[in-house]
Amino acid sequence: MIVEGILIMSHPKLRDLFDIKIFVHADSDERLIRRLKRDLQERGRDLEEILNRYQTTLKPMHDQFIEPAKEFADIIIPNNHYNTVAVDMVRTIINDKLN
């Protein structure tokens, strides 16, 4: 079973159930760019509102809850488009568990 979620590793009882824990790290610039695009296009927010929300709520919450989860990960994968090594490694681990 594969379980996904940005807060999933913040719960010790859940962490203990996982055979392997993977943290996919997204660069802060990339996170902001995604947020800008999504909020402008899909939510109709203006730039000032988006940046204010990012600085006052989203970034502090990321720093408090998401970033610390890295320490519980068995593997940390940088989220970029050229990371075939990490994908192959995870594929191998999953195949080993299934066999």
Q: Could you tell me how far the N terminus lies from the C terminus, measured between alpha carbons in angstroms? A: 14 Å
SS-derived structural category:
mainly alpha
Low-confidence stretches: none
Q: Biggest sheet: strands, sense, closure? A: 2 strands, parallel
The number of strands is 2
Oligomer: single chain
CATH class: Alpha Beta
Q: Which percent range fits the helix content?
A: 40-55%
Written as H for each helix and E for each strand, in order along the chain, the element string is: HEHHEH
Strand content: 5-15%
Considering the protein shown, what is the CATH homologous superfamily?
Answer: P-loop containing nucleotide triphosphate hydrolases
What is the CATH topology assignment?
A: Rossmann fold
Q: If you had to describe this structure to a student in words, what would you say it looks like?
A:
Helix 2 (28-41) packs across helix 3 (47-66). Strands 1-2 form a two-stranded parallel ribbon. The mean pLDDT is 89. It is mainly alpha-helical and 99 residues long. The protein contains 4 helices and 2 strands, in the order αβααβα. The protein is globular. The chain has helices at 12-15, 28-41, 47-66, 84-98, and strands at residues 22-25, 75-78. It has one domain (8-98): P-loop containing nucleotide triphosphate hydrolases (Rossmann fold), CATH 3.40.50.300.
